Amino acid sequence: MTDVKSTTNSVEVTLELAESLGVTAGGFAVIREKLGRDPNHTELAMFSVMWSEHCSYKSSKPLLKTLPTRGSGVMAGPGDNAGVVRIGDGLAVAFKIESHNHPSAVEPYQGAATGVGGILRDIFTMGARPIAVLDALRFGDPTDPRTRHLVDGIVRGVGGYGNCVGVPTVGGELVFDPSYQGNPLVNVMAIGLLEEKNLIFAEAPGEGNYVVLFGSTTGRDGIGGASVLASATFADSDPNKRPTVQVGDPFAEKLLIEASLEMISRRLVVGIQDLGAAGITCASSESADKAGTGILVDLDAIPRREPGMAPWEVMISESQERMLATCTPDQFAAVREVCERWGIPIALVGRVTTDGDIAIVEGGVDEAGRPKPGSTEIARIPAKALTSEAIVHYRLATQPTRRRQAPAPGIPLQAQDGLPERGMDPAAVLVALLGSPNLSSRRWVYEQYDACVQSNTIEWPGHGAAVLRVKGTRKALVATTDGNQTLSAIDPFLGAQMSVAEATRNVSITGARPLGITNCLNYGNQERPEAFWQLQEAVRGMGEACRALDIPVTGGNVSLYNEYPGGAISPTPEIGVVGLLEDVSLLVRPPFTAAGDTVMLVGDTTPGMAGSAYAALAGLSAEDAPPNLDLEREAALQSFIREAIGRGLVASAQDVSGGGLAVAIAECSIWSGLGASLRLGVSGSPAIELFGESPSRLVLSCRPRHAPALELLARQFGLHAQALGTVGGDRLRIELTGQGATGAAEERGSRVADALDVSLADLRHTWEHGLARALGVESGSGHGPRQETATPAGA
Predict the structure, then answer these.
(1) 100 is a catalytic site residue
(2) Do β-strands 357-362 and 294-298 pair in parallel, antiparallel, or remain unpaired?
(3) What angle (nearest 5°) sits at the alpha carbon of residue 685, between those of residues 620 and 743?
(4) Interatomic CA distance for residues 416 and 584, integer angstroms
(5) FRET pair for 488, CA 20 to 30 Å: which of 11, 347, 422, 735?
(6) Which of 227-231, 312-316, 581-585, 712-716 has the lowest mean pLDDT?
């Protein structure tokens, strides 16, 4: 065996080359220190992708270690491909959320499609069958041709992959905000079910065991895709970014799911890992490091779809739909038979070693697992140097000296004439909010998704959290995603707390107990102290909220460098939550259920309009500030509603969030076709009472005989509950009573004494057509947004 070649492919390794691959001078020095020599081109390429922000978490790792990760039933957590939590009856749920922001900005369809494919692989590599996808999508101005191009491509990409692979897309978010104009966010969450006994990890144990690669062949598509695109800022017009976007094949992924799950259930493999960011380099080094072993990689054995690929291209290619598994030699024939039966290419590409190194040879490996005579070792790197001992940066965090006012640039900062406080009919404000791009129906999006394949879906998209039956049991899983970028732009600590609170609240109001959260932290260039401060504060806020609500963080993703020439995105902590409903017959939904029921408000309204949908519509006054969040009260509220539902006291439940109380009640009416006649006491500003978004509040309906029991139970949890009125009719009428409604005594809201009174037909019409109108599409047509002047990414 000769020494490792330092001039692989005749490319001289210089600091300039290292920097072109995203390796800094400091990082290059650390690489030389870890190797005890200069790296060659292949080794440098491997380090460049594994030490990228996307793969190494080198800037966020010290922060993420502060999060609470232990909890009842947690079987797998951060560091594994997905979080896994027991749900009883020998079953467990696997779930995770990840980003594909930069690839989707460059090539919307394939970027979104491969984002779905990648997160699905994270699920079934744990031994779980994927049962659902949720997509959280964020864009800029919906009237802009470029935004419409992105929306169309990304929505089609999510649907195209999920529909073809046979996994339903059951929920998510669609948010428009000026800060995403040049940098859309595509965060995808996947959920899977497994038997506890089938849980498996990404590891390569056992000296002499076989390392097999199966799935699609390796090509130049996706070289440095997620690992490089997600680890640098870029101009969206840069055509050089397009070749680094992966190309997905959902039909190949479907075969991978079935073959992988069969291998796992039959105990044919002892470890398995998908090939995503950094390709074979990441899969082999992570599997070896977790097992405390090494892997000898036979480069010649790796199937390729393109001739003339250099070793470094093969090692870091991010071609999709590939898996790396470890098996004992006596099981290889069975593994190969499974792959051949499913029509999947398979190759024996390596052997497990005990030296702890990822060694790559060209020229072949013999049957005994030794390099053939005349072969060349072209790379040798300690696995831990690429993974667990990768470089870590302790960034400088500096609070901005001038805090940007919310909402984001492009939204009025000063209160305008026409505010409800200045005489506008509050019903007109409600109609405007319901017809706004961020609060109107998402039907145009979710009708492009197959939400019922696998026949597990109980609650379809559009009416709150997704609900999925667990076949063979009385259980159901409840899932949602939430992220509050408007509050995060004002206060990233509060914004992260609010995101956790709302996501868990949306699960609790169904009667389900939140099992854990998975997070996708979307932030700017962490090399800027102000941007890193935002990330630091968000992690701190998320940790405090999870500890207060007694819910573990089971994993997630950090997406940094979300900036473009026009600026950085608003800090966006996307939170995914999965909850368990022990008895699906107790499921409670948001829509009203019966005329004559009593409508109740649980929780207190507090001041603070900054960051609200109302502020985005009408502007801010000088005294406006964000609402406060009392985590102890939030925990009590969620415990209360789960207890009330368990006792059978609640007919419907909806949380108060975007658009405030009036929008929450309107949604209950629109979705049920039942109006309501209510009286709301106003002690301050009517706008705050009707449209404020202070947290920890619920709108419930119940049979009249249950109202006293609900009020008593609320008091036992330290909460205020009041009856507002009755369900029924074809109009929503909210009469304002009390000092705040008299007008003369108030500085703000002095002329808002009129009742909110509007027909359900008008509410439903504006809600159903708002998104289509904003995007310029025919409502219900299924056609993409009008793009007469849209310019494709990279054109």
Answers:
(1) yes
(2) parallel
(3) 120
(4) 48
(5) 422
(6) 227-231
How far is Cα 756 from Cα 733, in angstroms, rounded to an integer? 5
**Does the annotation count 783 as an active-site position?**
no
pLDDT of amino acid 149: 97
Dihedral sign from CA coordinates of 632, 638, 641, 646 = negative
Give the closest residue to 698 by CA, choosing from 454, 472, 502.
502
Which of these, 774, 777, 566, 778, lies nearest to 105 by C-alpha position? 566
Q: Are 46 and 35 in contact (CB under 8 A)?
A: no
Of residues 41, 100, 393, 706, which has the active-site annotation?
Answer: 100
Q: What percent of the chain has pLDDT over 90?
A: 82
User: What is the predicted pLDDT for the residue at 621?
Assistant: 67
Quote the CA–CA distance of 343 and 522 in Å, as a whole number: 38
pLDDT tier at 786, thresholds 50, 70, 90: low
Write the pLDDT tens digit of every residue in 3-46. Answer: 444 444 467 899 999 988 889 999 999 999 999 999 999 999 99
DSSP assignment of 217-251: PB-STTTTHHHHHTTS---TT-GGGGGGS----HH
CB 73 within 8 A of CB 173: no
Give, to the nearest 10 degrees, the angle between helix 25-35 and helix 41-50: 120
> Is 316 in contact with 381 (CB distance < 8 Å)?
no
Structure confidence at residue 751 as a pLDDT band (50, 70, 90): very low
Task: Provide the edge-to-edge strand list for the sheet that holds 294-298.
Answer: 271-274, 322-327, 210-215, 346-353, 294-298, 357-362, 376-382
Catalytically annotated residue among 54, 102, 149, 706: 54
Rg (CA), the chain: 27
CA atoms within 13 A on the CB side of 780: 4
Do residues 550 and 634 touch, judged by C-beta distance below 8 A? no
CA–CA distance, 329 with 350 (Å, rounded to integer)? 12
For 501, the token pair is 């609170």
Judge whether 173 and 137 are in contact, CB under 8 Å.
Answer: yes
Indicate the residue type of 696.
S
- pTM reported for the whole predicted model: 0.92
Compute the C-alpha angle 390/394/395, nearest 5°. Answer: 125
pLDDT tens figures, 396-430 = 999 988 554 444 444 444 444 334 443 458 999 99
Greatest Cα-to-Cα distance within the chain, rounded to the nearest angstrom: 96
Name which of 143, 159, 154, 142 is nearest 99 in CA terms. Answer: 154
Structure token digits, residue 577: 């939550």
**Better-scored residue on pLDDT, 367 or 268:** 268
